[in-house]
Amino acid sequence: MKRSANVLGIGKSNSSHRLRECHSTRYHGHRVLGWDAFFAFFLLTSAAFAQNVTVPTRPAGDNSNAAASTAFVQGALPSILVTAQPFNAKCDGSTDDAAAINSAIGSLPTGGGVVLFPPGVNCKVNSTINIGNGTSSLASTRQGVILRGIGNPNTAPIFPGFLATTGPKITWGGSGAGGIISINGPLQGWAVENLYLDCASVAASVGLNIVSAQNGETRNLTHVNCFRGRLSSTVPVFGAFTNTNSQHNKFYSTTVQVPAIAGASGILSTGGATADTDFETWVGTDVFLPISVISVCGYTLQATESSTLINSHFYGGNASAVSVCLDYSVLSSWPASITFSGIDPFQSGGGTQFANVGTPGAGAKPNYILPLGETNSATCPNIANLACFQSNRMFFNPGGNNVGKEFPPPAWTTFTPTPTCGTATFTVTASKFYAIGKTTTITMDFQITALGTCTSLLTFTLPNTPNTNGGFAGNNSNNGASPACRFGGSATASCNNGLSSNFAVNDRLFLTATYENQ
After folding, report:
1. pTM of the complete model
2. In sequence order, which residues have a C-beta less than 8 Å from that of residue 196 and are 6 or more positions away?
3. Domain 74-407 has CATH 2.160.20
């Protein structure tokens, strides 16, 4: 029996002949589906089997290079729309969508996939959205999940004149120390993109909670009204897992609006004695501090080290706000080796740009500002364990709890020495000093204009208290001798004439000294 060759006409040289053949082919006496019916059947079966899974269009090329296309391979991940069946998240701003979103995440293969949020929605969640199922003693069996909003949220009308396009929004409806999204490691591979996270100013709320997660990233996230906009922490090392750090995560284009809640922090990076947050990369972060007078930190860096923060910009603020808090209260050796590149920590509200919380330990390694964004009046801080490079000066810091050496030295500051010797009167021509950390340099010029009862002991007050004993170098221009002036133990120095004789009227003393101050 002769078969009708090539049922669908594939391989024929004449395309019009193939089309005609497909519409009227019979095979073993049975009519074969024509193109129209076949295409309708294909659409129906595809929808039934694939549900929300999408497959990208193959890029141009032949079989030798199409599979090598990064965009094609990455796009081939399963993609699920949270508002589609069977998940049916309402995202109307009032319905609790946490279960629907978590169900969508749970339906992905263990290797991960993409969960999509439509543009313009507001998904309220009364409990946390979870990526991964790790605990303090078990690693996650799931990873590779990407939460992605369709659209790019802006900074939600903070700057006048811009259209408010919040993109897909997730609003916290829970209470207490809950978080909108939690990355539950130890796990490797995760991402959150193009979302607007609103914690509704709930006390202790967290926008994005990262726990021992590695090699992940965020893009175009806006955190508003969160006690912690982003919190990166760790679980202790356990079992075969010798590294449970949160590390090598990257954060691109982040906007944080810190609420007016005492103790709030836009971003907190921390850990513990056995695992910390390290080797993070932050690029393009905007932090908006509250203008009402309340104590908050833009960044709080705690048990963290070796991260790089590029182009960070702070706005607003108040007299009690701090742009960057370097917090040594968990571990005295960390934060360490943090590099700030192109940071602009200035606040028009007049708060502190950089501040230490607690005291860095003797073994702490320094953090660095290189370079400082000076256009908006930012200045290099002079605090322990922080080296800063500014256009007109540099603070070199060897680490530990010592304040660094400034180059060039700071300007001289005048002080009042109040020289005293019996009932003598004095004319003070000059008295000035500068201090670099715990090192003070002092210079003085004063003259006895009336001797009174002054004999062989003269005293004067220093600008601070020396930590060591020492003496002044100097000269008495009236007799050419070198007076013997000493300091140590108190803020008062003492002198005698140096010739084993009494002071005389018109004795003029030129004195200099450098000492370690307390």
Report:
1. 0.71
2. 149, 153, 156, 166, 167, 168, 169, 170, 221, 222, 224
3. yes
